[in-house]
Amino acid sequence: MTRKILKWGALAALVGMALYLILALYAQQEFVFAMLFLVLTASAVFVFVNKKLYAHRYIFPAVAGMGLFVIFPLMYTVGIGFTNYSASNLLSFERVQENLLDRTYQSDSVRYSYELYETGAGYVLYLEGDHQDLVSAPLVLDGADSSAPVLPASEKPAGEPLAIRDIIQLRSELSQLELLTEDGRELSMASLRAFAAIRDQFMLHDNGSITDNQTDTTYFPDHDTGFYRSADGQTLSPGWTVNIGWDNYLKVVSDPSIRGPFFEIFVWTLSFAVATVVFTLALGLLLANLLQWDQIRGKGFYRTMLILPYAVPAFISILVFKGLFNQNFGEINLVLEGLFGMRPDWFSDPALARTMILIVNTWLGYPYMMLLTMGLLQAIPRDLYEASAMDGAGPVNNLFNVTLPLIIKPLMPLLIASFAFNFNNFVLIALLTGGAPDIIGASTPAGTTDLLVSYTYRIAFQDSGQNFGLAAAIATAIFLVVGALSLINLKLSKVKV
Amino acid sequence: MAMVQPRSTKYRVLASHLGMLGFIVIILFPLLMVISISFRSGNFASGSLLPENPSLEHWYLALGIPYTGEDGTVTQPPFPVLLWLWNSIKIAVVSAVLILALSTTSAYAFARMRFAGKGFVLKSMLIFQMFPPVLSLVALYALFDKIGNHVSWLGLNTHGAVIVASLGGMALHIWTIKGYFDSIDRSLEEAAIVDGATTWQAFRYILLPLSVPILVVVFILAFIMTIMEYPMASVLLVDTDKLTLAVGAQQYLYEQNYLWGDFAAAAVLSGLPITLIFLYCQKWIVGGLTAGGVKG
């Protein structure tokens, strides 16, 4: 009985928390996220209350985790790809309008010069205007945001006003001050010597347009580009996020300053992934073959030494290589200079940078291939090699006519997985070169060693424009590639469920 | 033992040994170099593999102890390496525990129960596993930004966010554990259920104790993978004090502030334990990786 109460209590508490979150998100007009958590909570309650779905209770947390952190972000990213979501168009239309209508400016027409008097009870402000003078009650200037009423006055307070250097010292406190006149106007500090009236910068009309009170320009909301736009084409910042259809994709194809770098990076990504798989497989297979050979002693030692690069955390070994390849202080260039008298510029020459990346990635990746192929080689019956030796075959013949044909089938899915992993090998690029050297003439940050993933990352997070929309469009293209690869893989590996 | 041996075998064995030893020397060069550099004085010193004037200054700094040079100048540790290591371990342990608990229960259902959509869910898990989280970082960032407005310990710049985000990578572990469960005879559990045990009891008291080895492997795998996770942590964490090792370590090698020697000591200090754990567990880990094709 108590167990039951506990169970229902826990469920109720969780649902309560979830509902709070959903309502809060809904109130902030985050409809997508409110919907996400609503679906999540509803399915959780459904699964845990329904007796028939007992088995689903076991898998629910894992499936929900994948849904929340893999599938939802994936779909959300695809969605962003069709919008102009970026640093300049970050907010929703309602928030942009709110933001603009909150803006104020200081009027030039209503200005008061002022004097500040120090009295026993605090500071007294005396404002001299064109039509009337105003005076405040004694104020405590402690820097907190405060507003104080000012009343019409006819004569200045007694005593000497503070000198300008004392006012400079009190400047930050004075600038926090808001003065309210009897007729409801607000005044704030405009300069060291003057206070001026604060006015709303924009006025909203019924048809949705807004007028700038300062310049008297009217701006109309343009829901195609996500900006308020005036008749002569001026736009107001910030803009809001709107759906722009296939524009991001068209930009990749048509804008030469994006198309050029994109295709260069695409070709490099493909060649990098293929080359990595080929190099690591060749090296791994060779070493695995040597380690399988009965004549070799000390296999345990060799094995441990050879998988060391795999055992060291990648983020450390990549940074180690970054230091070793450094042009001026790097140990690799010291060795090369000693032997051949040259100091290659590994990080600023595109071809050398790409060579370096392939060297490092082969170093990182061959132990994995070695371990994989060692397992597969063990499954090959020994008599096949006996037979080929009788026929006078050498090691090369053995490799191409016996070993490879036998292991290629089980190896294929693993090679495709390795290809997909390296196609998206973000950590290597981010830590080793960061994409450098840059491609000249690109309008978004793009480097000659960037892979598509690091390219999208840089567009989204390192560029000042933070063009999330464009980054998401390119990410969607990569999703398609990865999705196709993993479907092929599923077919090839004949997964049994 | 092969019966037919060509005459040249002896030379080929010798050549293989020499070839492999030479290869190992090249492969280990970077690792040995880093150890050597961590004992050199100064951040720009060059020299042979065995440092002529070994100095412990980088090690002091890596351990967070200010170092007093021979001329009396005091160098403060540039970065809180031990704190980063602690952050990494904390995040990795918590998320490995969560991943283990959740993926074990799901794997149990997938291995032992029949229910609607089982094959579909299992296959889609395998497919979605291949999508790198780097690509949906914008969405993940937005997600945690929005959650963080209401649940502060899950927002941006919290370890909670990194831990929770790591739960997205459970599919691989579910497959690994399910494969192991499949290899265990189910008659014991069936007997227990006939005797009146509930499904949960059969799982908890019969299957789980039999599966301790694979649970240890999955725990270590999840632990290592979270420690090495870079892209999500690099976007979600901001403050220097909150960074994980994988994100923080690169700060040593900025162009403007190149601390090669300090990096070397920090790298050896933090990399060594992880390397040793990996080497110790490699036999089991390799089996798990072959199933999913992760790293490399």
Automatic annotation (TrEMBL), chain B:
Its main location: membrane. It is found in: Cell inner membrane; Cell membrane. GO terms for molecular function: ABC-type maltose transporter activity. GO terms for cellular component: plasma membrane. SUPFAM superfamilies: MetI-like (SSF161098). The chain crosses the membrane at residues 20-39, 89-111, 120-144, 156-177, 205-228, 263-281. It is a multi-pass membrane protein. Residues 85-281 form the ABC transmembrane type-1 domain. The keyword Cell inner membrane applies. CDD domains: TM_PBP2 (cd06261). Keywords: Cell inner membrane, Cell membrane, Membrane, Sugar transport, Transmembrane, Transmembrane helix, Transport. Pfam families: BPD_transp_1. PROSITE patterns: ABC_TM1. One of its GO terms (biological process) is maltodextrin transmembrane transport. Belongs to the binding-protein-dependent transport system permease family. MalFG subfamily. Part of the ABC transporter complex MalEFGK involved in maltose/maltodextrin import. Probably responsible for the translocation of the substrate across the membrane. This is Maltose/maltodextrin transport system permease protein MalG.
